[in-house]
Amino acid sequence: MIRRRHTLQNALLAFALTLALAVVSAGKSRAQDAVNKADSLATQTVIEAQINAFRAGDDNAAYSHAAPNIKQIFPTVDQFIS
Question: Could you tell me if 40 and 33 are in contact, meaning their C-beta atoms sit under 8 angstroms apart?
Fold first, then answer.
């Protein structure tokens, strides 16, 4: 179960970093015009908070930062973490 937890954490960390990179990279495209700096900062703040929660082992905090569609897939903290 610990290995599973680390696998999920690593997958979510990779997803979060990919998302952050996509947001940063979008600055070079037309799509960036639709996303203002405040939105980018807010997105980055949420991603960093979730990563920090995973690193601290705070499952509840990590889950609280999950997107609504992720919470539909994993409706409880235990399901999200395992």
Answer: no
Residue 72's identity, in one-letter code, is: Q
- For residue range 42-56, list pLDDT tens digits in order: 999 999 999 999 999
Rounded (to 5) percent helix, strand, coil in the chain:
85, 0, 15
Q: 19 with 31: CB under 8 angstroms?
A: no
- Cβ neighbours for 77, distance < 8 A, ≥ 6 positions apart: 59, 60, 63
Domain boundaries, the chain: 2-81
Q: Are 50 and 65 in contact (CB under 8 A)?
A: yes
